[in-house]
What we know:
globular
Amino acid sequence: MSKTNEFILGKYKFKIPPPNILSLNNKIISYTYKIGGDYPNCITISYTFRDNIPIGAKLPHLLYEPECSIGSTLEKGSGTELMIKYAIQHAYRDIPTVPIFEFDDDSHIDTMVYLKDIPSSGSEESVIPQNYCIEKDMTKPPPRKAKKPVNLAYFYIAYHGMTWYEARFNAKMIDSEKYKAYKNSLSFLIDSKQKLPFIQFIEIIGSAFSSTERITELEKYYIPAKTYREFFEKIPPIKRCDMLYGWINTFMEYYIRSTFSDKGWYINVLDMNSTPILKGGALSNRLKYHIFSNRNITNF
């Protein structure tokens, strides 16, 4: 029996057991990789076969935990990206006839963020206090869940004009026409004519608030902004997690429900390091919002 391999990438070490292969009547019916670290179940890659020929690959499980690296803490964002890219490249080296990896972009973020523009004492980056943002309960073993998860795709679109997977992996929708429509629809973020009066904006998201105090606070950032993108940027970084939670999904769905779907995305290993095309404004260089988990999605 093949043994589990360990691979060192910079300061991280990951383990990749041999693929789990199930056969029936001399035909492969399941071919699956598991990639992780001290916590082993961080990434799953599953292949489908037809007549023993691989015809497709999916990422049915993606998860960030600090223990996804062996003997060290895996960083959010950059560490997660490195782990996923290496997993995809490893699978592609094994089965080079399948460069496309399908997934559902239904990830959520751990809203504990690292910001370079918050004063700190001597360190390059400082951490927002936990009373401002939601953090997973790190006293529990993995896998952990956030108490109030925020949709990563919508949050990232608001500030960057694209999803996290588009920005980091050049990901696209399988339906190319729908993807084109989605990218074109993001003009609402930077088009001042599409920014609604404040009362209409509140009518869209108002059910998210339990008091007028929060609405009044939001108004002072909304009124002076010429575009939605400017509005999002005006919200102080230390308040964004708390202020956007509860209504960012409703707001985004109002504008892009007909064009955006978290189902049916893919990463092409051959161009996942290419620079994505921006829509809805340039990438914000002030923030680094990090992925923490992607719930299990449907297997084949």
